[in-house]
Request: fold
Amino acid sequence: MKKTSPSVPSSHTIEKRIDYFDLLRPIAIFFVILIHCTAPYFTSLPIDSRSWLITNLFESISRWAVPIFIMISGAIHLSRKRDLKTFFKKNVLKLIIILFSWNFIYAVVDLINGSSLSTFLYSLIGGHYHLWFLYMLLGLYLLTPFFKTFLENPKYVKLFLLISFIFGIALPELSDTLALLPSHLDTIGSGLNHALGITGFGNLLGYSFYYILGYYLHHKVFNTKTKQLIYLFGFIGFLITFFVTWIFSASINSPTAIFFKDLTINDALISIALFVYAKYHTKKTFLPNLLIRISKYSLGIYVMHLLILENVLVFLPSTTILVDIPIQAILCFIICLALTFCLHKIPLLKKIV
Reply:
């Protein structure tokens, strides 16, 4: 067997709680909720209004949340020593149960709210729109045994990260950006997007990039100078997200969310910076038991939060954007946390959160 680099060990196991994962999960799930509270305003408000700029800011500071969850999953599942049977029983089967349970719940709620039978049947399989994350995660879980085969060699890990970054993140973002530009550049962007589509990779490489990256960053040791550069690029990533979204939206007089996508260079820079920062600056004494408990409930909060936003918090009185969005996000977070806590006390229902 080839000797592996000490900076990316292949034999680590993660069976105990990781402090900075327990910190990142509750923060990330709150910002996921913030995204869904902000999105309706972002697409409906006038581009030249101050309220729209506020929604752009809320979106720009939140979009790292989903990549962080993927990176945490990769760090955990690619590091654990589990046989295939155990992995499929404890992780894959569990995820399938959660996914289709909530497909059913959302489909029933939609039916009660007046949707058609055909929509109900579609939702049973296709799921509510935010449950795409579980479908994507299921795909990564199924590929996990294959990913592990090349993690023994750090050169292969770096090669995969390079290829997946170029074809899964950089080139798709380039094609989306060119499509917004005049002087035939939009045609080039459409052609590039078509060419990438022909490869058949789709989003697979992009989300696999984050999955493998989580493993890599978790085990990689960075010196002070490298960490500072990572943080600087993360801040630049945020500036790009906010200002480029503003500039392009103003230029076409319509809100564009292409720089809010998970699979963008700017989002990758922000996510990497926050992941590394949390890794090196989270102290165990800083984490209260409540935060650790919330971390445990983060998946439950995720799957049910739109049920609360769309069917309960829509009745909240409206004031101003600067107040409405944070209040909705905070209330949704608290309600979902309380419901998840209660469901965890019921043996049968515990399995779906």
